[in-house]
Amino acid sequence: MEHVLLLFLFFIPILGLTNGTETEQDFTWHLKKIPQIVNERTFSLDSPKFEAKTKLELNSVCGIECQRKLPVPSLSDLKDLLSYETIFENGTRTLTEVNVLGLVLDPAGNTTTRGSSRKKRQIYGTDSRFSIYDKRFMTNFPFNTAVKISTGCSGILISPKHVLTAAHCLHNGKDYVKGSKRLRVGLVKTKSRGDGRKRKGAKRSRREVYAAQEDPEAATELRRQSKGGGRKQRRSGRKQGTSDGMPSFQWTRVKSTHIPKGWFKGVSEDIALDYDYAVLELKRPHKRKYMELGISPTIKMMPGSMIHFSGFDNDRSGQLVYRFCSISDESNDLFYQYCDAEPGSTGSGIYLRLKEPNKKKWKRKIIAVYSGHQWVDVNGEQQDYNVAVRITPLKYAQICFWIHGNDENCTQG
Asked: What GO terms fall under cellular component here (predicted)?
């Protein structure tokens, strides 16, 4: 049955690209003019208590049906939602109010697009995740961009000094979580004992063949590391860091953290997944290749509707886990998808590969932040989805501003 499913997955993109108008589909990163986020004033706030518990699964959040009913936010609303808090390593905190320039509001409101039928799962059916064991693989792009957050989440490198992750990894909507005062980011070490050992393993799987079609460079590395035991891994009970394939981390302190005000309760009536993102500034820059931000395209503009991301799932302690899957539903701000994932992978950067304008080269960019397995309200009932926060032009402008400190490098994305 597994082989039948994998064969079916293999042919989905091929059928999609050979059907009528799809043959002329242009899967390209189209540059868009980005609105400007401008700081208006910054003032100090009381230091937070840092007493909240980290909660990797959220309840009673606005789901697909709720998203359809949301009114179009006014410019005043957006200015309030995109204002942001900054928490520094010494525990001090500021609030920065912003203005939004050059934005054209969409009168159509918050729409949703449905793909395939919904299924209830967090891990369901055959576990389709790849555990990465080879250190050479872990430290090569794009997998080297995945980082571990000391509060138990994952993140992704977006500049020499910045990491993108989920806001709920640091803040529960009312207070900062325990451990976020002395926040650290773990980068997989490039060298450790045992590097270079040859391992015996299984043959290349059909899913790796499919991965080769979706992301050839990543699949090349998957074939290399698959010799270390294949993709089906179970918890062995061995202590972290004692077995082959367990990465060791180089931990770096976080200098400051930015979280949009839209995430905090009291600004919205409840936690708003639309704003479940945060940017961490590292105390010291790293020298690794990072992944650039991109504007999230619609499902129709994604090859095979496929997304990819890597993180540190809790049920595979210490392992870097890679997965890819198709998106089933989308709203203006969220992706609803069924990528197999467990707590610990939340905050991972979701990316895809599209062609660069006027070039034959394909390039990966981050288009969303994995918010995790969430319970959302659908027709008055609680249902579960794996949800990701899309990088819209406004969010691109804000994150880009946090990275560069000005909007000169954020006019197009």
From this structure: extracellular region
Q: Is position 353 within any domain? A: yes
214: in domain:
no
Band of the pLDDT at 228, cuts 50, 70, 90? very low
Q: What is the CATH number of the domain that holds 363?
A: 2.40.10.10
Domain range for 357 is 36-104+128-189+247-404
> Among 164, 108, 75, which Cα is nearest to 370's?
164
Cα–Cα distance for residue pair 372/345, rounded to 1 Å: 7
Q: What is the mean pLDDT of residues 15-31?
A: 55
> Tens digit of pLDDT for each residue in 380-394?
677 777 889 999 999
In a domain, 226, yes or no: no
Backbone φ, ψ for residue 244 (5° rounding): -60, 140
Q: Per residue in 105-157, pLDDT tens? A: 765 555 545 444 334 345 545 667 787 777 777 778 899 999 999 999 999 99
Tell me how far apart the alpha carbons of residues 392 and 260 are, in angstroms, rounded to a whole number: 14
User: What is the C-alpha separation between 83 and 262, in angstroms, rounded?
Assistant: 8
CB 34 within 8 A of CB 412: yes
Domains in the chain, number = 1
Q: Quick one: 148 exposed, middle or buried, by C-beta within 10 A (0-12, 13-18, 19+)?
A: buried
Residue 74 resides in a domain: yes
Cα separation of 139 and 262, whole Å?
Answer: 35
Backbone angles phi, psi at 88, to 5 degrees: -100, 165
Task: Give residues with Cβ within 8 angstroms of 234, minimum separation 6.
Answer: none
The string of pLDDT tens digits covering residues 260-292 is: 999 987 555 555 788 999 999 999 999 889 999
Distance (Å, rounded) from C-alpha 59 to C-alpha 44? 31
Which of 192-196, 240-244, 391-395 has the highest mean predicted lDDT (pLDDT)? 391-395
364 neighbors 351 (Cβ within 8 angstroms): yes
Exposed e or buried b per residue across 42-61, where buried means at least 16 C-beta atoms within 10 angstroms of its C-beta: eeeeeebeeebebebebeeb
In angstroms, rounded to a whole number, what is the distance separating the alpha carbons of residues 162 and 249? 17
Q: Which two tokens stand for residue 43?
A: 């003032």
- Mean pLDDT for the chain? 76
The pair of three-digit structure tokens given for residue 381, joined into one six-digit string: 């009932």
Residue type, 331: S
Angle CA 323–297–12, to nearest 5:
50
Q: 381 has which bridge partners?
A: 378
> In this structure, how many other beta carbons lie within 10 angstroms of the beta carbon of residue 4?
9
Q: Are strands 362-378 and 61-62 parallel, antiparallel or unpaired?
A: parallel
